[in-house]
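Standup, Tuesday
Yesterday: got the pipeline producing structure tokens again.
Today: sanity-check two examples.
Blockers: none.

Example 1:
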Amino acid sequence: MREFIKEFKKNTSRSFYIFNGILLLIIMWGFYNWGLALIEGPGITGSNDFVPWGLFLVGFVFFVGASAGATLIGLMIHAFSREDYKVLGIRAILIGLLSLLAAVLNLMMDVGQPIRAVLIPWVLHNMTSMLIYTSSTYFIFGGLFLAELFYALKIARGTATQTDEKIAKWLAIIAVPFALGILHAPHGALFAVVKARDYWHTPLLPPHFAVSALVTGTSFMILMAIVTSKIEKKELVSRGALEHMGGLLAFFITLNLFFDFYDIFVLKYSEEPEGIEILNLLTGRFVPFFILNFGGLFLALMVLLNKRGRSIRALTFVSCLSILAILAYRWDLVIGGQILPLLPGFPEIHYYPTIPEIAMEAGIIALFLFLYTLLTKILPMEEGSPKPIEAEIGIIKKWR
């Protein structure tokens, strides 16, 4: 263990400790406010009787989408034999697993009492609710990620057999249809089955959620590859791989804009009073998010279709813009869909996140980043990486 700590310190810069120290402070700030919420109740957040789903549900659907979209890398490696993607394999698994953790933490904070979230669906369940289905898939998807990580690490250490490699291959391939069709598309159905909300009640939402997940996951992986290369001062993936990922992102953005357009087109063309009202809301009070959603994705697509749109700077810009655009869509969908009064005569409804609510969300994001930076530091990320220390059995392995 001493040798491991000595080697860890030797290969760790001062900026690593400063960055993670800041993250730990944000994590403590967030979980302190969560403790206040557990003691004082949900009144310290901006949610209310009219808008019960607030910032936590926005974060929840965003991180579930990121988790589902990250499975694309494994598919590229094992189904399409993209050898240049291999270096991203374990990193994609970690991002998917940690995104799922962030999504569940958002859900637990929204529920109010964490024990309730833990008991769903094992004890607290309603078999007629969509929640009984979606909550069950989190356990399966988490187990799938852990199994993927186990076999991927065996391959990275050089201890995998041919059977292990086959299992790793099929787990990666199965993860994509499971993530998009079984895990995330039904989250769109959670909204789509609510007949009282005209903005939600559409069969387009399940596939829209799946496509948005691919945009988010691909953007995350491009940004991670570029940032990691900058930090480690080496080329993590080839320019060809980055350009290919940019092409995939352009395709997914095109599909996402298709669904975005028809969401609005149906509201306008149907001329239903509720639809016109939500459209006026999106282009009125919510216009900054509306512009960021449509304009951001359209601008990202135009950049990617440009000759210089696959450069490092362009891909960094496009990835950040796409993530923000999908966040804006999630905000419009979750918050905007609840703002309209269900009955005539109700006053205008507003929702604004409070400082404690923002602190809790910041704590979740900081925890995601902290665990990712730590795990990528101590785990082998690709074949030929140093072997980690198996401290559980007290065996210290030498670095290759």
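Example 2:
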Amino acid sequence: MLARDKRLRAEQDWARLFRDGLGVSGQLLTLVALSTPGKRRVGFSVGRKVGNAVKRNLVKRRLRSAVLNAWDQLPEADMALIAKPALVEVDFATVEETLRGLSRRLLADKRWRG
């Protein structure tokens, strides 16, 4: 479980993230991030296109675990992970590798100011 201070919760934080943040996308996930030096917070968006409630909850559990496993490799930023429907079909190792790959792509992007 992610601690309360590590979760992106407030509506204004989500709005600021999508207004000012930088996004990178893959076949399974989209990562939107906005640099916040000294802290990391993560939010998850898993819409109905991903599947029924059982599938959406499975995806959220996998994403939370992948984030906890890769916590030190993630940028110091507010981040939103947006699941795509194909994420339901893959195993946990693929979810972890996808998250790490998107994080590396974000940090390598010239527009990133982190």
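Quick observation on example 2: Residues 50 and 85 are 4 Å apart (CA to CA). The chain has one domain: 4-108.
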